[in-house]
Amino acid sequence: MMDKTCRVCQGSWPRKDHFIADLGLSNAYLHDDQYFPGWTVVVFKRHATELFHLAPTERIQLMEEVNLVAKTLAQVYEAKKINYELLGNQLPHIHWHVIPRLAGDPSSLEPVWRVEHEPILRSGPDLQSMVQGLQQAIQNAR
Amino acid sequence: MMDKTCRVCQGSWPRKDHFIADLGLSNAYLHDDQYFPGWTVVVFKRHATELFHLAPTERIQLMEEVNLVAKTLAQVYEAKKINYELLGNQLPHIHWHVIPRLAGDPSSLEPVWRVEHEPILRSGPDLQSMVQGLQQAIQNAR
User: Fold this and answer.
1) Dihedral angle of Cα A90, A95, A96, A98, to the nearest 10 degrees
2) Which of A123, B71, B73, B86 has its CA 20 to 30 A from that of B103?
3) Which pTM does this prediction carry?
4) Residue of B42, B69, B77, B86 to mutate, testing the A interface (most A Cβ within 10 Å of its Cβ)
5) CA A98 – CA A73 distance, rounded (Å)
6) CATH class for domain B7-141?
């Protein structure tokens, strides 16, 4: 089940070099913008747009996959709080934003969307090292 | 299990006149600010701050309760998309924001947090009528 007009189904987002792990029903990727370190997106594999469009067994498994990522990010980044967000206003294909919020975050009380900033893009060995670190941590947490 | 320093555990938020339904492990309330019509919060009853602090059975049931609210709001408000957000940056006691985004929403592509606006507070018969409508709709959707 795919939607030809959907950027996720087309494979144009998230970027393949940001891939972290195949979790089962979803894939985890490092988010393009790493201003908030560790921001991860958990992308449902087939095309669906709302939790209530999923079979209960799928919904439960997807949320356990999101939970695994949240737990891992909390450990790796020593997060003060995790933000979990399923929005889809621009790209309705189900993708969860899982964002570790750190004690040193200058805007720790605000949703990330309220924090004006220049995006921090990672690439090359720097990106690879972040991705591999999270791959290993998710593997260990399973 | 409660936290004496927590506004939810103290019973000072959400407002009791905004109560919609007891869902089992959580209670649903109309959000104070109704600039986005139907914005609902699903508040876990006992004090906990992260999904991964819950027992798997609790997490699964909580998410099914969030799902029921999302499905109901989508029907009642003919929503284009539902936003699901568990943040807790200011108030870590688990509470899900479930926000119907409507086709006529002037900022439909943006997270609600990016939309500058004067809060719309409901009270009296107006509030009562919204709450009762949602109570009935959740009852029917069960």
Assistant:
1) -90
2) B86
3) 0.97
4) B86
5) 8
6) alpha beta
